[in-house]
Amino acid sequence: MSTIDATNAGKRTLLRPSITPGELISAGTAVTLTAERQIHPRSAATAVRLCSASRRSGPVDGLHQTVIARDSTIEISTEGLDVGGYEIVVEQLCDAEGRILVDRQVVPFVITVLAGSIPAGSRVEHAVHLRVGELQVTRCAPATRDGEGQYIEVVKVADRETQELTILGFDEQGQQIDFRSVLDGVEQRRFAKYGRIHETLWHHMEDLPPDEQVSVIVWPPSNRSVSGLTSRATVRGKGHRRWMPKRFVNGARLKTLWLTHWKNSVRPCQSTDMSEYPSYEPG
Known about the structure:
The chain is built from three helices and 18 strands. It is mainly β.
């Protein structure tokens, strides 16, 4: 057929991608789209494009993606893509007879960089890249592993057939590690240093002389909202606990718990009614 007649009626379906929408893949991975009927090569060249997700389906600068159509399969190259989100957009794709095969289909995916090897037959759903120090855990960019502390990446993978989820941990050399024990070690070291108080309060009290009193506000748990607000911050599923200042609970006045800094320890001294703070009356 010399021309493509896109007005002819035909069965319209969706292409079957080789990846799951939203999947994380490495640059250079070929993505294939399979149709139920033979695809017109010239239609594939104009109907399929690779777009940057951050630009709302805008073109990718400096990239001329390779789209190859063979029988009922389209292959899109991801060679040269930077880390980030992308979309394969298919619009008005015709089959070999010139009939519309796909009106519109979008397949999103993410390019990332992983140190570890993913088991065969699995897909990557999520990945977090971390730098683990003595007392802190910070995130870092996938392609930038510079920084202090031990580098680990935590990857959630799913079996393509059974959909069973597995969480894996890798070090900078790509060796699989027990990432939970690494993170638990940070928690244990933090508790040994800060105890049950917040890190900011601990550092504040470190600069104070012994027996200095510090005023803090206690945020007790509450199972109901007394403010009458219906926001995502206050309305949650059954069984969740809401936290609010004590002056917001049952209309009670704000109370302050005095803490004493004494030889790197914290102990309650007294509870004082702060009458200068107005009570909160719901409604």
